[in-house]
Amino acid sequence: MPIVTRRLIAPIVGCAAAILASAASAQTPAPPPTTAVLVNLTIKPDADRAQLVKVMPDEVRATVRLYLDGRIQQWFSRGDGRGVIFIMNSTTVADAKALMETLPLSKANLANLEFTPLGPLTPLRVLIASPVAADKDGR
Fold this sequence. Notes:
Alpha-Beta Plaits; 5 helices; 20% strand
């Protein structure tokens, strides 16, 4: 093997070995804490429109109460017009489900609900972690 090729390959192999050794010794990080829950509410396709029109005023009032009570952090209409997105001030999906089940659309079985726990972007911890100390050979 030519010397130039060895000079190029040796550092690459060394870096790859260091990365693999570091990854093998690293522990699996704990999952991030749930700090909010995203709720995707869509109206069921087979929902009776007359019943929907009847329930909506109560739904809006109940939703506004949850917002004013600090249970809903943010809410958005979906771009496709098929429902709404809520960001709930809940630390568990179970808590968010319990709140959403109190709403008139849920009680009338007119809505589909999807829940996604949200938390801090934990890969950012790498940016604030203390630097790894070099061993006695300076590696």
